[in-house]
Amino acid sequence: MRRSAFFLPTMKDTPKEAEIVSHRLMLRAGMIRQSSAGVYSWLPLGYRVLRKIEDIVREEQDRAGCQEMLMPTIQSADLWVKSGRYDDYGPEMLRIRDRHDRDMLYGPTNEELITDIFAHSVRSYRELPKLLYHIQWKFRDEVRPRFGVMRGREFLMKDAYSFDTDSEAAKESYNRFFVAYLRTFARMGLKAIPMEADTGPIGGNLSHEFIILADTGESQVFCDRNFVDYDVLGTDVDTGDPKQVGEVVDYFTRLYARTDEKHDPGAFEQDVPAERRYEGRGIEVGHIFYFGTKYSEPLGAFYTTRDGEEAPVHMGSYGIGVSRLVGGIIEASHDDNGIIWPASVAPFDLGLINLQVDNEECTRTCEDAYSRLQQAGMDVLYDDRDERAGAKFADMDLIGLPWQLTIGPRGLKSGLVELKNRATGERQELSLDSALAQLT
Ligand code: ATP
Ligand code: MG
Ligand code: MG
Ligand code: MG
Question: Which one of 27, 85, 197, 312 is least enclosed by Cβ atoms within 10 Å?
C-alpha cells in the first residue's frame, strides 16, 4: 500500500478526551474515530488490526473443533422474557420497538438465541457434543463508556456455546476452550492469566476470566506472579484428547489467581509468598462459563438420552472481547513514540520509507524494494510522500509496524539502506539485498 494513497489520518497532538495510552494512540494513529459515546468507526489501519485479531481467534476456535456461524445483532425480546433475563439485564440492554410495536433489542450476548436454535434442531444424544461460535457486534449501554474501544457500547465479541449430554462432558468442552484461549492470547503476544471468576448475570457455577495485568485495567485481581512466566505456546497439546487438555488446565490453574469477587485474602497469603503476590488491576479480555441447564430448561433445549429419556442439554458460553483486544494489546506494547505491534497482529509487516522522493535513484530503489517485498508475500506500507524525513519517522514509529526499511540518497552512495526493528530500536546498515534476505 502506498502511503500517498492510503487513508491514514494521523494526528500530532494528543486528543484531550483520551485518558489512557491505548485510546490516545489509536486516535493519533488514525485507527478509529468516535461516532457517538462508546461507538466507533474503524478506519483502514485500525480495521486491519481488528481483522488480524479476529483471524487468530477464528483459527483457534476452529482448531478446538468449534464451528463458525453468524447470528443477527437484532433479536426479538420474546426469548429473553422466557429466560427471565429481559428484566434482569436492566438498562445495559438497548431496547428497540419495531413498526408493529414488537419489542426487539440489540443483542448484548446470545445465549437465548443459540439455545433456541439448538432446541429446534437437535433431538438425540448421538448429535452431541456440539460447539458453535460467531464473531458479531454486541451492544451494551454501559453506564460509563470510556477508554476508547476498551469499554465501548458497541463492540465486537467472539462468543461460543457448547452443548453436551452431562456435566462431565460439558467440563471437557470447557477445558477445550480454556486451552484455546491460552493459545489465542499468547499468539497475540499477550500474557493473559486465567483467573477464577464470578459468573454474574450469565449465571452458572464454573468460570474463568482471562486477564492481562495492566494498571489501566478495570478489574481488581489477585494472583501469583509466577503465572507470567508460564509458557503457553511451548505447551504441546492435542486438543482432541480430553486427558491431555485436562492436564493443561490443571497446570494453568494450580497457582492462585482470582478476580476480586472470588478473592480470599487468607488463602492468598497462605498460598503465595509475599514477593510473588500481585494485587492490582487487569484487563478482562476473555471469559468462559459453564452454566449447566440454566438456559436449556426454560428454553426447552432437551435431547433424548441413550435410555430414551428426555434430558436438558448442558451448556457453557465463551466470550472474547475482539475489539477490546486492540486496545489491550497497545496497553501491553507501546513506548513514548507510539505503538509496537506484535508481528501476528500488525496492520502491515513493514514500513518502507523513501527519504527523498525527488531523487531518481532513491525512488527507483524504493520501487524495486517495494515490489520485491510484495512478491515475497510481505504486506508493505510504502511512504512515498513528499514529506520531511522527521515527520515520516515519527509517523512510522507511531503506527508501530514491526520493521522499518529506510532508503535515502546518502546511504545509497555507499550502497546501503537502513533496517530498524521497532520493538528493540536496533538499526542495521546493510545492502538492500541483505535486508530483503533477512526480511523474507
Ligand atoms: P466487563 O467486566 O469488562 O464489563 P463483562 O464481564 O461484562 O466485561 P462478558 O459478558 O464476560 O463481559 O463478555 C465477554 C467479553 O466481552 C469480555 O471478557 C470482554 O473482553 C468483552 N467486553 C465486555 N464488555 C465490553 C465492552 N463494553 N467493550 C468492549 N469489550 C467488552
Ligand atoms: Mg460488563
Ligand atoms: Mg467482567
Ligand atoms: Mg465477564
Answer: 312
